[in-house]
């Protein structure tokens, strides 16, 4: 039986960035497949009545300290983005578009965006900055922008988000092994156990 992790993600979550840095390694070690499921975290929050922990000042301060602890444990860079929170609608449409239309470039695409947001701390709310990041990484900004306007791509992202909510997702990162939901990058040990 093939083992699969479905990874429901949105770029705008620093905890999602940390899970993204670890899941490929976990899947390689357990002989499992990683399936990326882009979704719109804002849509999930709206549908479930949830909100970012960063919206509660004390919880937000704790969360970023805790994420730093995990980044050190995982030995990966993490920089608190001074432009947080980021409106990820266009970015997640672009990611969905790359996954649907150019799957061979999908991994490089999300790599450059996660890196720009959570390692370099760049302002991905600014179209000029997004264009610069894409150009630096060998992507054509106008072609990517065209993907974000594609009605089929918009529909796929909307359906991914609705499907996530129907399955019980309320935040990001959310991972499924079979029908079992694991929420949060601090639950990766349970994901590994479920795959083993």
From TrEMBL:
Reactions it catalyzes: 2-hydroxychromene-2-carboxylate = (3E)-4-(2-hydroxyphenyl)-2-oxobut-3-enoate; RX + glutathione = an S-substituted glutathione + a halide anion + H(+)
Record keywords: Isomerase, Transferase
KW Isomerase (keyword) present: yes
GO CC term (a single one): cytoplasm
GO terms, biological process: glutathione metabolic process; naphthalene catabolic process
Enzyme Commission number(s) from the entry: 5.99.1.4
Active-site residue list: 13 (nucleophile)
Family the entry assigns: Belongs to the GST superfamily. NadH family.
Protein name (Swiss-Prot/TrEMBL): 2-hydroxychromene-2-carboxylate isomerase
């Amino acid at each position: 039986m093939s083992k699969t992790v479905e990874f429901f993600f949105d770029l705008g979550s620093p905890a999602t960035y940390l899970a993204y840095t670890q899941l490929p390694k976990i899947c390689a070690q357990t002989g499992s497949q990683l399936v990326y499921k882009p979704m719109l975290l804002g849509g999930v929050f709206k549908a479930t009545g949830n909100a970012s922990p960063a919206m509660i000042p004390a919880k937000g301060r704790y969360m970023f300290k805790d994420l730093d602890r995990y980044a050190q444990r995982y030995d990966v860079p993490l920089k608190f983005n001074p432009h947080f929170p980021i409106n990820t609608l266009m970015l997640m449409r672009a990611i969905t578009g790359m996954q649907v239309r150019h799957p061979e470039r999908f991994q490089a695409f999300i790599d450059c965006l996660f890196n720009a947001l959570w390692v370099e701390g760049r302002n991905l709310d600014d179209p000029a900055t997004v264009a610069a990041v894409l150009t630096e990484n060998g992507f054509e900004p106008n072609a990517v922008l065209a993907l974000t306007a594609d009605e089929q791509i918009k529909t796929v992202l909307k359906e991914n988000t609705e499907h996530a909510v129907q399955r019980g997702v309320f935040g990001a990162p959310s991972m499924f092994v079979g029908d079992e939901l694991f929420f949060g990058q601090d639950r990766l040990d349970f994901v590994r156990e479920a795959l083993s």
